[in-house]
Design brief:
Elements (H helix, E strand, L loop, with lengths): L3 H11 L16 H13 L5 E7 L7 H4 L3 E8 L2 H10 L6 E5 L13 E6 L8 H14 E12 L5 H8 L4 H11 L12 H10 L2 E9 L9 E8 L10 E4 L2 H15 L14
The chain binds S-adenosylmethionine.
The site of S-adenosylmethionine has 22 residues, from helix 1.
Length: 276
């Protein structure tokens, strides 16, 4: 189980953060390429906007881009060292405020003040009880026409397979998990699914308007999900649309290939021109 305590231990101590999370963007050719070709196409309808709430920014891999798409940004993470790092990294951006939380509470956010809530590559490690608590509070924190994009685990969908694998003894078990997932489960929260997420939204006056089930770092299992949601009756409301995307890593491979040609970081520093 990926409990809040284990997350705190991992991200506020065990993990070294030498590259500020940039290491997780390697498959896309870097965070700039991942942001512009994998994340922006999925959220461009909702930004720029007024207030963005980012849950679990880590060292600010996405905050670095989100900050340019809003009037104010609130970043909340359970790790004190991550929030300290964000405060240092973005000390020049006076419209960003950073808070440490207990892994559950959003009490530092004013009710009905958030236009867009975003979380990427973080809450995949949050179990269903934590996701439910965040959704419950978000129903109050979002404005009437607010919207959310949250990346979470869908690995609960395969719980049955995993419990069968758990019964296998010794090293054989690890090699089966590796074969199915390419690398072992990526520490996904085993209790979470896309269905649960949309159920939590319904329960608390929100509604899921889109869910993309993806094969994050795997060969075809839909272990993760991006959920789009909004308050019931908002301007964004529509029936949920669900897409099963088993090409997510193929998309990453293509982005990586193209990034060597098109990304800002592919241009030698001395040739860069400030477009302004
Ligand atoms: C893998 S890092 C990713 C950070 C950042 N989103 C990125 O992509 O670089 C996971 C982050 O989620 C935070 N986190 C995990 N569970 C959390 C929770 N329940 N509430 C708030 N932050 C959480 C951790 O402290 C850590 O900063």
């Amino acid at each position: 189980m990926a409990t809040v305590e284990l997350n705190k231990k991992m991200w506020d101590g065990n993990y070294e953060w030498i590259k500020q999370g940039e290491e997780w963007s390697r498959a896309w050719g870097g965070s700039e390429a991942q942001w512009s070709a994998a994340i922006m196409p999925r959220i461009h309808t909702f930004v720029p906007t007024g207030t963005i709430l980012e849950i679990a920014p880590g060292y600010g891999r996405w905050t670095n881009y989100l900050k340019d798409y809003c009037d104010s940004l609130i970043a909340i993470d359970l790790s004190e060292s991550c929030i300290k790092a964000c405060q240092q990294r973005f000390s020049d951006s006076l419209h960003i405020t950073c808070h440490v939380n207990d892994g559950i509470s959003l009490e530092m956010v004013e009710d009905h003040s958030v236009d867009f809530v975003f979380s990427y590559d973080s809450l995949v490690h949050a179990e269903a009880d934590v996701i439910e608590a965040y959704i419950r509070q978000l129903s109050r924190k979002l404005k009437r026409d607010g919207v959310g994009f949250i990346h979470h685990s869908n690995i609960g969908r395969y719980q049955q397979i995993f419990s069968e694998i758990e019964k296998i003894q010794g090293t054989m078990r690890e090699s089966i998990v590796n074969k199915i997932f390419l690398s072992p489960k990526h520490w996904r929260a085993s209790s979470m699914t896309a269905e649960l997420f949309s159920g939590f939204c319904d329960k608390y006056g929100l509604t899921c308007i889109g869910q993309e089930l993806i094969n994050w770092g795997t060969d075809g299992l839909l272990n993760d999900c991006f959920s789009l949601f909004t308050p019931k009756g908002s301007n964004w409301s529509r029936a949920n649309r669900i897409i099963e995307n088993t090409d997510f890593m193929n998309e990453a491979r293509l982005i990586r290939k193209l990034s060597s040609l098109y990304s800002v970081s592919s241009i030698p520093d001395e040739n860069k021109i400030d477009p302004r």
